[in-house]
Amino acid sequence: MFENDSSFSSFTVNAGQIFYVPSGALHHLENIGTEEVEFIVAFTHERPEDFGISGSFGAMTDAVLGNTYDLPAKAFEPLNRTTHATVIGRQESVSSIPTGARWGNPHKFDIEAMSAPISSLAGSARTACKKFWPILDDISMYSLQVTDEGMREPHWHPTTVEMGYIAKGNARMTVMNPGGSLVTYLLKPGDVYFIPRAYLHHIENLGDQYIHFLIFFDQNTPGDIGFKAFISGYSRETLAAAFGTNVENLPEFPFTPIDPLLVERVNPVDPIE
Length: 273
Description:
Shape: elongated
Largest sheet: 6 strands, antiparallel
Protein name: Cupin type-1 domain-containing protein
Pfam families: Cupin_1
Strand content: 25-35%
Distance between the termini: 49 Å
Structural class: mainly beta
């Protein structure tokens, strides 16, 4: 990775780790193993744009490149150059790995190795946010696991959109827009979903094993408002008026000052329609 002020770094990334690239930083990804590598990549813009080394060279004449590198213009004639980047290139051999590439680097974060800030029988949530990874800017991520005994409670994110990738398991999600219309859909490994800012939603595990979501937000630190905690902020009289009933008809809501994010499932999963 090559950034402003000629700042250069090289580092390795393994399964379960994530990396961050600042906007405009030149970077490349290289498979240094013997098997195919899969990356899940998220951007902070809905229409990401980029250009590569080959494409940027194609924008310049041989003479301009020659002047830049103190070489004759003809030195660049053999290169196959257009203004469209190669995107994925084939190497004849794997590059040598610099010794420093295996050291720690501020651009990568071992999210699956961190102690989960939220963990219970219902599941766990590991968070790559600015609090734990200071280099982040306008992006953050959850590695969320929900067991077959848990559920991601109904909630919404007031100031951030959400995009998720299902790495393992089968789930059901219900989303309500501010106009009151609902959409419910099933999710399986490889699926991606998107939820606009401040849309109510929840996630249910439909299998007998845990589900694993990789969830991305367009804020340094995502916030949310969950059902379990917000109900404790209102008197029973206010709630009765909101539901159009009498106080004695209300359920005995537990007092919850800190929202748990994940709740244990004490009832069977609703049938799949």
